[in-house]
Amino acid sequence: QVQLVESGGGLVQAGGSLRLSCAASGRIFSSYAMGWFRQAPGKEREFVAAISSIGFSTYYADSVKGRFTASRDGAKNTVYLQMNSLKPEDTAVYYCAADLRRTVVPSTDRREYDHWGQGIQVTVSS
């Protein structure tokens, strides 16, 4: 099993930046892919970014490409989501997730992820 704990959310003005962290424990960190998803009120949870097990490959939703960057630090067992040029439409609860069945090519489908963090609020004011 994997336990995931997000941190770093909050309130920011449009155009600002935030960095989310997701601390993982319970399995060898380099053995599984990780993803970031978000859910706005009244909407389904959607894919934001994914990163392979040792960080060589990353994938992004079109809506965040060029603004968000996913990375992972094996020494700290932590995955990050650097969010720049934030927009009000980025407001949502953000979740990190682990896909224990994939390593090199992470999935963009939330149904493929086995373990989820508790979620953290990101609010972007206009």
Characterization of this structure:
The chain has strands spanning 3-7, 10-13, 18-25, 33-39, 46-51, 58-60, 68-73, 78-83, 92-99, 115-116, 120-125. By secondary structure, the chain is an all-beta fold. β5 and β6 (58-60) form a beta hairpin. It starts with a strand and ends with a strand. The relative contact order is 0.32.
SSE layout and pairings?
Blueprint (H helix, E strand, L loop, with lengths): L2 E5 L2 E4 L4 E8 L7 E7 L6 E6 L6 E3 L7 E6 L4 E6 L8 E8 L15 E2 L3 E6 L1
Parallel strand pairs: 2-11
Antiparallel strand pairs: 1-3, 3-8, 4-5, 4-9, 5-6, 7-8, 9-10, 9-11
What is the C-alpha radius of gyration, as a whole number of Å? 13 Å
Strand count, sense and barrel status of the largest sheet are: 7 strands, mixed
- How helix-rich are the residues, as a percent range? under 10%
Based on secondary structure, the structural category is mainly beta
Strand content: over 45%
Total beta strand runs: 11
Q: Number of helical segments?
A: 0
Query: From N to C, what is the helix and strand string?
Result: EEEEEEEEEEE
Mean pLDDT: 96
Cα distance, first to last residue?
40 Å
Anisotropy-based shape: globular
Low-confidence parts: none
